[in-house]
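Predict the assembly for these two chains.
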Amino acid sequence: DTGVSQNPRHKITKRGQNVTFRCDPISEHNRLYWYRQTLGQGPEFLTYFQNEAQLEKSRLLSDRFSAERPKGSFSTLEIQRTEQGDSAMYLCASSPLNQGLHGYTFGSGTRLTVV
Amino acid sequence: ELKVEQNPLFLSMQEGKNYTIYCNYSTTSDRLYWYRQDPGKSLESLFVLLSNGAVKQEGRLMASLDTKARLSTLHITAAVHDLSATYFCAVDPYSGTYKYIFGTGTRLKVLA
């Protein structure tokens, strides 16, 4: 297992376009999280899944954002009608159910630039 | 409002010196995590502190947790250049969701 994988690593898009990011978690991990990190800040929680169920969404996640995790495996995060304020690093993390003992494992992130 | 504050925000130190980074949080939590982030990279787990009084050490870094004071420290002993990075603490205040609240980060630069 090579850890949490995110694609693409970098994405530059024009304002108003839609973008989709993918996250492949560690295979035996039930929980999957999405965070957003802007320059000079700590990561902020967006949403999380336990298996295929999306259990919580942050108020940061506007209607333009949607996340899925079909079949409880990989996850996608889509941003519709991108805005310049969406420019950030989007981080995916996964954990087993007993994650309290181990913490998350983060992926390398997808850096989004909206021009 | 839940807050996780770190200080200092920036730290420039000479190789060989010792220093401590502080992480204060405003809610009850008996779990605290430390992560390291290199520029443009993702977060690497350093320590998982699961109870009051927990202390963990790895190389030149030692982390401790005081849940009564809502304080964690990350102590650096005899700093080396390779420790230059941004360090984040995160608390897990929501029972069952494991939704972390991250601190503001401490950007450490170790000068040779």
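The CA atoms of residues 29 and 96 of chain A lie 4 Å apart. The mean pLDDT of chain A is 92.
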